[in-house]
Queue: 3 jobs
Job 1
Amino acid sequence: MDQPQNRVFSGVQPTGNLHLGNYLGAIRNFVGLQDTHECIYCVVDMHAITVWQDPKELAANTREVAAAYIAAGIDPERHIVFNQSKVAAHAELAWILNCVARIGWLNRMTQFKDKAGKDREKASVGLYAYPVLMAADILVYRATHVPVGEDQKQHLELARDTAQKFNNDFGAEGFFPLPEPLIMGPATRVMSLRDGTKKMSKSDPSDLSRITMRDSADDISKKIRKAQTDPDPLPETVEGLEGRAGADNLVGIYAALAGKSKAEVLAEFAGAQFSVFKPALADLAVEKLSPITNEMKRLMDDKAYLDAVLERGAARARAIADPVIARVREFVGFI
Ligand code: AMP
Ligand code: TRP
């Protein structure tokens, strides 16, 4: 079985409220990899159900993430777009890898601690095993590169450790490549607009904390206007943003949207008050996001098209995953 050198895999959970962090930290980078890599982009519905999802909303949210991928510029003809639950190989490999990964590794996962909260006894078993399913997602395609936001770095390390241990345990040297995280751009960790020390997230109860991929131009402007900052003007250097989480976040968002570095943005806006910078950021955000939002809306109205994309993508995904699973079964000794 030959090993591809440039195969990308990544996923986004269909848990609603797709936001600017998902776009700048992940989806936009997915788009940029299409000319140099063979890409597989998944809507990870099996990860989503690790916390309760209303079944109707799950279906709608799955189509929404697919629409966001396509509206952002992912070409589902050249590359693969599908939803995870359609390809049984993910679940099959996840079980085998559950028997390879160690409880001690999972106990170190900070995302589980955050998501499970205080009452850990009541968290689903799936939430705990989540990183192993993620490892299976990647390894079942023997993917080499994984574009993600900063928050997924620890999960990627677990995927690498799991791949390495499988290769060692089963005398399968080099069978699973150790996947490389691609954490790219000036907005790998977009923060809440209400609290610059907290990650922008789908589950924040405050809608003002995030710009979503459904927001109108007015919503975007309002949320940026209300974003938490401080009374000082923008500094001249990136070092000057230290200790100013809200300001740092907005400069990072501007940089990512403009395709510039934070230093370049500060060269332009040094000394400016937020009363000047915020409207400039709002205009830029509307200019960059509105075409995507509009195209997403159009696609969401064409359910048949989206479902056909996901179905075809799944068939192509299975064609890659099935021979890998067949080989894994041999390594393990299943007859
Ligand atoms: P999720 O919403 O957890 O399915 O995340 C999908 C992708 O978006 C992953 O690659 C995350 O790392 C990325 N992501 C989620 N939240 C943020 C954020 N606030 N800033 C940057 N990237 C993010
Ligand atoms: N855990 C990722 C997140 O919440 C989503 C995800 C699932 C993923 N499987 C993946 C990302 C495989 C990259 C590769 O952000």
Job 2
Amino acid sequence: MIAVIRMMPKSLVWIFSKRYIAGKTLQEAVDYVKTLNAKGIYATIDVLGESVTNKEEAVAAKDEALSVLDAIVQNNLMANLSIKPTQMGLSIDEEFAYANVLELVEKAKKINNFVRIDMEDSPYTEKTIRLFTRLHEKYDCVGIVLQAYLKRTLNDVKELNKLGTNYRLCKGIYVEPASIAYKDKQEIRDNYLNALELMFKNNNYVGIATHDEYLINAAIKMIKELNVPKDKYEFQMLLGVREDLRDKINSNGNKIRIYVPFGKDWFAYSTRRLKENPEMLKSIIKNIFGIK
Ligand code: FDA
């Protein structure tokens, strides 16, 4: 299916992708975040882009991310920043990526904001944890993402709990081998809940990032049973996904944050979102072949 999307004209893929993206410009992202904030919903803004292969591109991406932090202050937004490590140069040189992300975290600290480091595919798991750990030694306004499909995750939680970590916990979206990743839906859910429990029991802040009602209900039950205070968690969802559920969680008095991506490099992100949405893929294919 993904191969099919890659062969399509980008203009067509854009029609189906734009529900997942605020727009191609920062102004469009700011405008979108304002509409969320008006409903009491928080945002995390992401400049689209990943797997950068030269240092100039990584520096440009870091500069764009700095502009996002400026825009958050100027517009008084209830929002923080999410970044992809390979966009900051992690696949080029760890030290170089560290310097880029450090600049972002230092800026976030100055303006009382926060940087979330997204987790990419498994060649970068160890490097991303190392990047986070070094930044966390200096600043507390930085957090990491862990993926419940990875078999290593419970061990990572045990290690990161020792530092006192601000987590986002998600299922994980990249294609990983069965030797390192759970493939069964229920196994991933079980690992998610085991990781969440470990995080809460050590008094960490957790962004519960999922649209899976099974996990959301189980998390709410766990929060009650463990008496987790409201300032130790939030729910997180992606722009354009399960807005009904988002509004329900929000109206029940839970803090919720939406991942708001924007930018010109929208293709790779959109492909991953479309992969999660078989109905949308069917529509695209019907549209191409003119099937009613
Ligand atoms: P699941 O895929 O089972 O979806 C549950 C239900 O949600 C589906 O049945 C469907 O109704 C709906 N749904 C989900 N995706 C949809 C879509 N694209 N379109 C339409 N409906 C959809 N991953 C990662 O590897 N690294 C990361 O850093 C992040 N960051 C991140 C941030 C935030 C805020 C979220 C919410 C998610 C991520 N992810 C991520 C993605 C995550 O790993 C996962 O792929 C998606 O959230 C989908 O998994 P669910 O838990 O929602 O379950």
Job 3
Amino acid sequence: MMRAHWGTRLGFILAAAGSAIGLGNIWKFPYITGENGGGLFVLIYLGCVAVVGLPIMIAEILIGRAAQSSPVSAYKRLSGEDSPWQALGWLGVVCAFVILSYYSVVAGWSLNYIILSLVDTTHGKTPDQIGGIFDTLYKSGSANLLWHFVFLSLTVGIVYGGVQRGIEKACRVLMPMLFVMVGALVVYCLIETPSGFAKAFGFILEPDREKLTPRGVLEALGHSFFTLSLGMGAMLTYGSYMSKEDDITRSSLWIVGLDTLISMLACFMIFPFVLGHGQVPAQGPGLVFKTLPIIFSTLPAGLLVSLVFFVLLALAALTSAISLLEVSTSYFIDEHEWERPKAVLVTGVITLVLGVPSALAGGGGMLPEWEAMFGMNFFDTFDYLASNWLLTFGGFATAIYAGWFLPDRLRREEFASGSRFGKLYPVWLWTLRVSPVAILVVLLYKVGLLKV
Ligand code: TRP
């Protein structure tokens, strides 16, 4: 069977940017920036993205395009049928299931808030009561299961359509919508709370050395992996649908640039609200689902703002979820020669089931032994495991593989093919070879061998 390819270069960039731009940009980046005091943290994050994120992004796409296949088969093709590197492909597939299973639950909350924005549940309520809406949702097993199912069905529906007629087509429509909505919300903030906007500027752009801890530096590096969808074969899989005439470096610059832009704009549409209405930016994960609805309820046209915001969040999550599902789906297509419909439905059902404990995590009684053993619920365990360990380790191993084990001739040719940046090969290779050192520091710190 001929391998599917992207219809256009723009289609690939939008799909890959869609994978990168997700809850990590709109939900997580603003609150970790808040926790780390803004300014300097943002600067360090930008450094991590440029020096570690970009070279590994290029490496992942390059491996995928060179092999023209999804993670497990890609390592086999490039390094031999029984190469131990195929374990890295396996890690990617496992990661895809794990991340999508809980990602879908969070995305489901935004679907729920879209409905809440339509029926106005905040009218005449106190801030505590509005915050309580989220607590009720979080604890309701049936609501969580329902939204998890709805969100996953949307994802399955798109991936079912295939690379060009499903993923690319959806991203070509959804991504421009997302950009327009982000822009509209930033402009709204600027008009509605100019004072908050000015405060946000100061908060984000003024380096504040006091509040940044070494821990924050490591968090910045870890997040640069998560937000760029690196370390688990998602970019590799998308790269495998790319043609030899396309410019990998240029596309990567676009993807990384768009992802960073949206993260920054997300700060400029959340902090003006938060700072301008006397709230504190370091609110943890509740920032989006509790603090914002409270502020929205006091704004003129607040319900419309709320609607736009949560549609935006759902779209960002959807285009990321698509790429997660594509990793596991393409595994079954490439390795087991399944037809796409069968592969999508089977992976969809597995993810649905795997997400059940996360959907029920807020219910209290679910799996108390688990909570006792790990000190956190199922949902948090998955998130912690994936974004702290699996992705970091995956990125580390990918950089080592691409930097040291990929045959040099193939690597050089692939880097130059279709690219106007061919001359930068030594710069890229050098950065790629050094990047694992930075990641190793993070890993050592995490296992407690390094104290900062
Ligand atoms: N990048 C996504 C975000 O910012 C999350 C993510 C991490 C992801 N790894 C991924 C998405 C792999 C798709 C594929 O929210």
